[in-house]
Structures are given as C-alpha cells and as structure tokens.
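Dear Dr. H.,

I hope your travels went smoothly. While you were away I took the liberty of generating a structure for the chain from your last submission, since the lab meeting agenda had it listed for discussion. I wanted you to have the full record in hand beforehand rather than looking at slides cold. The sequence, exactly as received, is reproduced here:
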Amino acid sequence: MSLPKPLTRALIVVLTYVASVLFLRYRHDGMDWTHALLIGLVVTPLALLVSAGRERLNAKAQAAGERMRARRRYQRSR
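The corresponding predicted structure, in token form, is as follows:
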C-alpha cells in the first residue's frame, strides 16, 4: 500500500512528535506531561531537520564516490 506524499510526511511528523514526547515523559528521570509536550514541539522539527541533513549529506557522499569511481575507471582504461 502506497500513501500520498503529504499524508506520509504528516504521519512522520506526528509519529516523531509522539515518540519524542513519550521518550521525554517516560525516561529514567521523566518529566511531567506539560513540559514533555512543549519540549516535543521544539524537538520534532529539529529531529526532522537533522534527519533531512543527514540524508542530503549521504546522497552527496554517494554521488562523490560514484564520480571518483568513474574517474578511476576512465584513468585505467587510458
């Protein structure tokens, strides 16, 4: 089953928010619900930005590796 892109993104945001709030609430020295919910609002966009940045860096590294391999193949064939 394939979901539309906007729905997928919305689900990712909601699940990230829920996971961060539950983590903050039920960690070893947990906090009350109010603080966990408020901090979750800050943590969710940051977590998604870090994740997107990581994916972008990995894609750039993969492209750079492919270019390097292509150059090596070209140099060996000369």
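Two observations you may find useful: Residues 12 and 72 are 40 Å apart (CA to CA). The first helix runs from residue 5 to 26.

With kind regards,
E. W.
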